[in-house]
Model the fold of this input.
Amino acid sequence: MRKLLIGAAFLSTALATPAFAQEDAPFTGPHIEALVGYDDVADGDGDLMYGVAAGYDFQLGGVIAGIEGEFADSDVNGAANDLVTTGDSFRLNTDRDLYVGARLGFAVSPSTMIYAKGGYTNAKFEGRFDNGAGTIFNNGVTADGYRIGAGIEQKFNLLGPSGFIKAEYRYSNYKNLDIGQDDFDREIDVDRHQAVIGLGVRF
Done:
């Protein structure tokens, strides 16, 4: 009988431990989210971006570390003039955007986290270069770059007890995009600014 009571006590303690751990570390575990926001590329015409993301966070005390990946798309246009010669023009249209990186956060309350992030991004672009003298080149470019950002995440009970909402700003830079051809060939760097809202759930 004594062994049975000890076993029952041990089992109840083991079953209760995950619940206590989740309460003490509310930002732990895998999560998925939907993203929507504002996208501005190369100081052009900003437009809507949208995507999905997933990741996994580890919480130790008030510190949260995580990994995340994202797939996004938009139809943003960037433009520039006089890149190679006076009178030329360049138009850049965005396509799909992939991102993988890490973030480091701090729990300012049991339901609120602030964080910084950084990682690798790979994006597709469609470029149209006009040299101003009747010669036009169209280029499809896949570019590698880096992304840094910061945001705030808040538990959001409308999505259930594990739901959350976040607001995030991020900056991306893509280097050596090849535009034009022949004598009008040139490599440029592209800056990208995004302000994003995310809605998600944690498991």
Q: What stands out?
A: The domain at 26-202 is CATH 2.40.160.20 (Porin).
